């Protein structure tokens, strides 16, 4: 551990302040958890373990639950019956409801206007704050790192550990600073930056590290853009990704329901949570932000992306050839002429209001190409409400898209929102694995603006083609 | 809690594909379960069953006997992707007790170790050797931290020391954490974290 006087990274500062028992060679350290977010999919077995041991949830006040993964995005029928994909999915949701009731945990359930994808709703409520350790049984928990929190995904056994003790056994990760210099070009979004970073790091390149995103292009992102960027850290293998808090972070949190009572004092402390001048990182990479253009994936891992319209690289190995074969793409050719069957706009990566606006700006007054199915799924009830107040739902509907209820939907495709076998989808989500969006589904990852432009054109399209109103989603 | 893991001698199943992600190990549509049991059928489901749910007769993983083949040798960057603990649960229920690759995703490793599934990272040369020898008989000794291929010289592997101890003793890390509660209470008092 560095001396108190030596320059420290943001990771060092959070780790030092939340380390209850230091790690030794034999035993991991005990790390305090400020905020534990839970959902229906990865919590039931953890509650069963607690029940079997007769243990209560130690800090229900630091635990917050929502329903997002298994939930239908179509409304209930006339009898109030929700169209769950299976009885098991419905049972999973009621299991979480029962567990929360029994243990006194607050749940943003069906009747709550707070409900949403866990990584969208928690920041909205001001639950996520700088300097915290935030965990959730979900690999996209790094999203909360956008606020200068150390946030990472855990497995179900660890969900049980946190429920039982409000702490985790952890070894400190190594630090990796990702500098994105310069200014993004107009029409280039945080998602394009995320895809460029993952491409530069490689699929497992961040493994064992906590990322800190820095540099002019990162500072220039709004909070939603920072969440998009941090969200995809795991796609480079890094469990955590973070951005140091600044005035934008403070402005976002001010007035939110769970923001600290003594806000000014908290804000002053938050501004100290940044890597000191001269702090040493285990690794650093630098990316020229000004050179990033709208990107899309071409393979079956999120690192396999290229500028839209650029010819694909020749496969370097068997796995890249396999990826091309699965996607039915050809090396040395662009992917902008393949008819797209499905466009999905939503997810914890890109289901926020700025994403909805970026997509609507392109779809406004235009029509979805015949034969393309477009699903727009807001990330939370708050996003839905705000979008509807702005008339964005109408923009989408008039263009020919479906406007759904909030949830993870077609990103993880476990609620029945599926891409059919063989279909090609352009999706604003985070994973393009084989079959991720349904057995045999072929997924291209891209930004909301790109997805919207693709919906109109029917083929993968650089959103700058539709210059008017393109924004930094 | 996991069965203790000390020593295992078994044959290998070789799946050379790189970056086998957690959606391959268990597709998301099987995650609506509320238990951790019986997920073996869902392991590599989309590789083993066709669109109608009928087993694919010539699928490699439908033609292995996990009574004799409990060690999976997989391509680089194994189990990347999601934090679902259903992945090790499914592999264990399918009959796998150890996975060998050049790199194994860290959330998966953490999950696997808590359930008695041992991930082992080996160097590229050892990996290549194993990929070229499906059905090789391997002995994994967690006490000595060695991997022995046939009658070759034992190869040392690294494993997080605390997880190793828990696996050998068959105890849950939760026991250890529960003993830290007084320290946690003190930490909360000193840092204004309520209780």
Overview of this protein structure:
The complex is a heterodimer of chains A (473) and B (195). Chain A is an alpha/beta fold and 473 residues long. In chain A, 31% of the residues lie in helices and 16% in strands. Chain A contains 16 helices and 19 strands. Chain A has helices spanning 10-18, 44-53, 87-103, 118-125, 156-165, 190-201, 216-219, 223-231, 247-253, 263-271, 318-327, 347-350, 353-363, 381-389, 392-399, 448-457; strands at 19-21, 29-32, 35-38, 63-66, 106-108, 133-136, 150-153, 167-170, 174-181, 209-214, 240-242, 283-288, 295-297, 305-307, 342-345, 373-376, 402-403, 424-427, 442-445. Chain A has a 5-stranded parallel beta sheet with strand order 5-4-3-6-7, with helices on both faces. A 5-stranded parallel beta sheet of chain A has the order 17-16-15-18-19. In chain A, strands 11-10-9-12 form a 4-stranded parallel beta sheet. Chain A starts with 9 loop residues before the first helix and ends in a 16-residue tail after the last helix. Chain B has 8 helices and 7 strands. The longest helix of chain B has 10 residues, at 181-190. The mean pLDDT of chain B is 96. Helix content of chain B is 30%, strand content 17%. In chain B, strands 4-3-2-1-5-6-7 form a 7-stranded mixed beta sheet. By secondary structure, chain B is an alpha/beta fold. The chains are: A alpha/beta (473), B alpha/beta (195). At the A-B interface, helix 2, helix 3, helix 5, strand 8 and helix 11 of A face helix 4, helix 6, helix 7 and helix 8 of B.
